[in-house]
Task: structure prediction
Amino acid sequence: MNLFQKLKARPEAGILLALFGLGLFVSLLEPRFLSPTNFYLVSRQIAFTAIAALGVFFVILSAGIDLSLGSVAGLSGVCAGLAMAHGVAWPLASLLGLTTGALCGLVNGLIVARLRVTPFIVTLGTLSVARGLVLVLTQGEAVRAIPQGFIDFGNSDCLGLPLIVWVLLILAWAAWFLQRRTVFGLRVMAVGGNENAALLAGVPVARIKLWVYVVSGLCAAVSGVLFVARFQSAQAQAGFMLELDAIAAAVIGGASLMGGRGTVAGVLVGATIMGVLHNALVLLQVSAYWQELIIGSVIIVAAVLDAARTKKA
Result:
């Protein structure tokens, strides 16, 4: 089998082709799309979504859903920003932000796994609670006393790529390894594929469900903390609607909302499609109202395609 046939056999081949088609179409309409400056900006935008998508990907693999990750990202960033503003060294403050995200994921996981509450309801509630905590902590105001050292670090480059892109590449490799080369990853897919069969096979289903939400919360926190550096402040609205882009990226990339199917490479391609689409709408000066309509339509189409894939399988 030659290289072309191997690529064609990959589950991501179709969406990768769609990405190239989208990029070509946008570049014909707006030549600025291919400029190095725009590539730099869009890669950073994609990275924020992709990092969050990698976390929710494991939740989706287990046949769950996490609607709270955008609010968790915002809360994690605010906790880190407030700590920095009160004199805590930024590495420790960043660790506090990451811990906040992991704890939020732990709460989600405990309620879903131990109390057996529907993930949609649990994470919808956590979304509201986390956003409310952000507003209580900040009174709706941005935290601006962020150390310059953290801002410089968060916005630094390495080999021409933003730091967050390197963070994404490291996390993507870790996610691939976790899914494909560990017992945990195999168990996550088993739980998503058939929970009852996984129970009969001795898989600790409750523990697996708990940990996938911790992973999702932690990845959301990574995006949230790095949002602080990007905006040079911890903003109350940071992470708003991030959950929709992240979930859409995973589903567009081939992850099944019914669980048990998906790849890390597909998530990255899906996140790139979402990032290119957002960037194209801005470059083409599409009205913000139409942008919401178009993005929402893409999410619906992704859900319909996922249902069709599931039925065919």
Summary: The chain has a mean pLDDT of 88. The longest strand covers residues 157-158.
